[in-house]
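Ops channel
N.P.: pipeline sanity check, posting one input/output pair.
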């Protein structure tokens, strides 16, 4: 017996729950971060057009933190030598 062409053939088993599948964004809305997946809140993502922009900002922040940590012991030592009063 020949099937009607308008009838779709479905090879999926009944136990497959397609509602639980996550949908991946494709195209310009999709952001790729190599092996790690990072979720940015919409207000943060709005500020960074690309993954490279995020990486550049984070690297800058890392440099600032490292520079401040390098200065911190010196600053504390200088303050401990300051005269009281």
């Amino acid at each position: 017996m020949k099937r009607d062409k308008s009838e779709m053939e479905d090879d999926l088993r009944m136990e497959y729950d397609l509602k639980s599948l996550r949908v991946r964004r494709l195209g310009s809305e999709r952001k790729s971060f190599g092996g790690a997946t990072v979720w940015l809140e919409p207000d943060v993502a709005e500020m960074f057009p690309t993954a490279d922009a995020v990486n550049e900002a984070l690297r800058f922040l890392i440099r600032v933190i490292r520079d401040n940590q390098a200065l911190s012991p010196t600053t504390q030592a200088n303050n401990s030598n300051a005269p009281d009063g």
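N.P.: looks fine end to end. The chain has a mean pLDDT of 75.
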